[in-house]
Amino acid sequence: ITKVSTQTLLAMKARGEKIAVLTCYDYSMAKALDYAGIDILLVGDSAANVMAGFETTLPITLDHMIYHAQCVARAVERAFVLVDLPFGTYQGDPKTALSSAIRIMKETGGHGVKLEGGIEVIDSVKAIVNAGIPVMGHLGLTPQSINLFGTYALRAKSDAEAQKLLYDAQLLQDAGCFSVLLEKIPAQLGKEVSEQLSIPTISIGAGKYCDGQVLVIHDMLGLNKDFKPKFLRQYADLFGTIAHAAQSYISDVKTNDFPNEQEQY
Length: 265
Ligand code: KIV
Ligand code: NA
Known about the structure:
By secondary structure, the chain is an alpha/beta fold. It has helices at 6-15, 27-36, 47-50, 62-73, 94-108, 122-130, 146-149, 159-174, 187-196, 217-220, 238-254; strands spanning 19-23, 40-43, 80-84, 112-114, 135-140, 179-183, 201-204, 212-215.
């Protein structure tokens, strides 16, 4: 098996092969997704939402992220394991950012980190890249700034915000990022950024012209029952599958059908 590296991903953009990314937070899921041939497994801070049940991504800690990343990295043979730096671990100053990223690299077996923002965090990006750690940028809707935005609505609809995003994307590339994630922006802007950059863009709600796509695994498997944004394609109904399986089990236990003669010692 040839492991996916930042070079693999750059080469994929160069030859026009799309990059498939999913989020992942645990060992068993990572086994299945790596087996399926996913290019990047993102240990996203969306773990705060789908694993821990928080309203926003702000409460998750670096220790929590390290735990999830360890679980994923233990399972993976091929995929590039990318780990989100959580809120509060990189915005303050480059030294803190670097020590956060170093903890992830030393303690988890992950291959790189992702952080949110452009010019505001560019010194942190440079410090991490200069230490030899691959960094993916994240622009557009940046959920760690939800309290500033006020909503999870589409970003960069105005010309001014679109221009800033194009500028930030270029800054991130120049600072040495190997890729930039674009969240919830118009498809035309996603196209412009993807054409402007030589590093791959990864879209979540940023349209078909980006160099790759990412979805939160719970959303695409239909585990996150009532979350149905326009950009989401749902590939399974795991909530229904799990609930039905549990109902069958409950019924079998109550009716004394389970276990039967063959299922006991
Ligand atoms: O944490 C996350 O799930 C993300 C998404 C944008 C994929 O960063
Ligand atoms: Na994230």
